[in-house]
Amino acid sequence: MSLILQIETATTVCSIALSENGSVLAYKEVQQRNVHAEVITVFIDQILKSVDKQYHELDAVAISCGPGSYTGLRIGISVAKGLCFALDIPLIAIETLEAMTDGIIAQNTFDDKGNILLCPMIDARRMEVFTAVFTANGDRIRPTSAEIIDENSFNDLLQTNKIIFFGDGAAKCSEVLGSNANVQIIPAFLNSACYLTKKAKEKYLANDFKDTAYFEPYYLKDFIAGKKSV
Fold first, then answer.
1. Which residues are paired to 28 by β-bridges?
2. Is residue 51 part of a domain?
3. How deeply is 87 buried, as exposed, middle or buried, from its count of CB atoms within 10 A (0-12, 13-18, 19+)?
4. What is the pLDDT of residues 55-108, one digit of tens each?
5. Strand, helix or coil at 150?
6. Is residue 216 part of a domain?
7. pTM higher than 0.85, yes or no?
8. How far is it, in rounded angstroms, from Cα 74 to Cα 196?
9. Do residue 113 and residue 180 come from a single domain?
10. pLDDT confidence of 1, banded at 50, 70, 90?
11. pLDDT in the model for residue 222
């Protein structure tokens, strides 16, 4: 038996889900910038109450650990650590791009998996994205990286494969890659804590836990503070 609280705060979406034995019992989410700190603990209380569960019944907390928004990740991991310490339960970390890929696979039935690649993208400002490439079965074929998108991006893969670009960074591909017949862009895809469910269960059963005291989110790039607008 595993009752796992799942937290996704890597992008503009703040999402909380509760899963039991690999099935989502309840979830609550909102897509709005800069509200994560205000709503995250409220959402946790609400979904637990909605299915008549108590905090002490939780077996683990799973966090979408990045890459993504520096502030969002800090908020999510702080809440996750606080719960793990208070309840004496383990922390599970799942890379955000892997969770996104599980999500797009769950939403689609691909006719020809052999020639389809999946490319989750998280907006990293200007023409840069955090991205990786996976097969339609969820196997990674390119590591996570920060990429500047231009007309030559993914040329080697697009010669023989159809690539589905999705996530809040995928819209950046439209202008420079949108004319390629092997490109499909799904910018409306939103991150969700529900997409952590598959790997959260796998990691829980494998005892694949993080050191709660020392774990840090996967920022990928150093944080650079911007100037406050007047």
1. 16
2. yes
3. middle
4. 999 999 999 999 999 999 999 999 999 999 999 999 999 999 999 999 999 988
5. coil
6. no
7. yes
8. 18
9. yes
10. confident
11. 58
Tokens linked to 143: 């590591």
Residue range of the domain that includes 75? 3-96+191-205
CA distance 36 to 34: 6
Say which CATH number the domain at 24 has. 3.30.420.40
Amino acid at 211: D
Average pLDDT for 181-186: 93
pLDDT digits (tens, 9 = 90+) for 69-82: 999 999 999 999 99
CA nearest to 66, candidates 81, 51, 76, 52: 76
CB 104 within 8 A of CB 118: yes
**Is residue 77 situated within a structural domain?**
yes
Do both 67 and 152 map to the same domain?
Answer: no
Q: How many domains does the chain have?
A: 2
20 bridge partner residues: 3, 23
How many helices (H) does the chain have, and how many strands (E)? 6, 10
